[in-house]
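Could someone model magnesium ion with this protein?
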Amino acid sequence: MSAALIILAAGKGTRMNSELPKVLHPIGGAPMLHHAMRAGAALDPEHVIVVAGHGADQVRAAALAYDENAEVVLQEEQLGTGHAVDQAREVLKGFDGDIVVLFGDTPFLRPETLERMIATRQTHDVVVLGFEIAELQPRYGRLVMDGDRLVKIVEYKDASEDEQTIRFTNSGLLACDAKTLFEMLSETSNDNASGEYYLTEVAELANRRGLSVTAIACDQAETLGVDSRTDLAAADALFQTKARAELLGDGVTLVAPDTVYLSLDTVIGRDAVIEPNVVFGPGVSVESGATIRAFSHLEGCHVARGAIVGPYARLRPGTELAEDVRIGNFVEVKNATLAEGSKVNHLSYIGDASIGAASNIGAGTITCNYDGVMKHFTHIGERAFIGSNTMLVAPVSIGDEAMTGSGSVITSDVEAGALALARAPQVEKPGMARKLFEMLKAKKARMHRGS
Ligand code: UD1
Ligand code: MG
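Reply:
Sure, complex below.
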């Protein structure tokens, strides 16, 4: 059965108190929306439709960044969850598979749960996902069951006192075939406490049609929604806890797991060692057996097998470290490829550069890649030796097995095997230091006497 995913993401998220649309606030370095899209991807859906409203342009860009085939439909006015789903009607004209509705602000849904919903669809016409709440709360729709049958969903505001004590509540997720769902959505009304078109009304409408309607349960943690910054922080903490546990299970050593910050797309190979206080921003992959030492910050980079990074290193987007590369303390690397066994061990900036295999970059070396207007590239060949405190003024190219003298400012290309020196020659004045000391001491003494 082919499926279309409809992700509701038009709401403002007033309680976030933010310019940024709620679904774009990040958890683990990725917008909440990406978490929902990722869970939905498990269904291998034929359509991924995101319903956008507040901040629609930004939401569209984020949706397409995750899945270039996503379809974004606009809900100009937020008239309710039923109305939101209805916005996909045009896009899904002629589609006769299943629709699975999920919320963009529910990041912890497990793919297995979605699969379970689809499996239940084999035997039921409408499947709703619910969860048992431990403590009664004045929110959430209540699932009114009769055995296996979901009779109706009542929003808390519309519920009778009896119904308000029901603990089986609505997560908001629903699966139903497209044709039936759109027919039923045409029949919903906004005659309720909120004056909205509720998606939840379809449960009752389906019963009236004699369809079989049921609800399955998942863990409350899976349906955890984010409504405020406090929720967001808690959700991020929960994400981190899960992501760390997964890595540990995958055979990655986290010396102090609670201090390592991970992103949704962080990939770390078996037997890699991650020391305390390392931040993995988006887009990082670290191969098996690499070591990331304490207090390093990585984003948009790849670290190959056996490489050692840090402590106190910063790898920025476009950094490619081949096997056995060494990046030491206070080194920043951006948009640069470092070939096998090359070393940048101390206090350097390597940006817009390529460094050949087994080259050694001395302490304090800087690729001067920016002229104030444009960025330029530095090429360094294999087995080259760049002396400490060399300024490589790009564009510039250093040949294989070439050397630069410490403190050089290199402004033109250096051919293979050559030594380039670009600094003032040393001048020595015998006895001059002693004279200078005496002069200065005498001056200081006069100042103290006040003369
Ligand atoms: C909804 C459910 C409720 C359930 C709860 C779970 C309905 C009527 N109620 O209530 O039964 O227990 O979620 O969290 O469905 N949205 C739009 N357009 C709209 C309205 C909402 O895109 O016009 C989106 C929101 O951005 C959000 C989601 O739909 O992602 C849910 O909307 P929200 O207003 O949070 O619904 P609840 O009142 O929480
Ligand atoms: Mg809500």
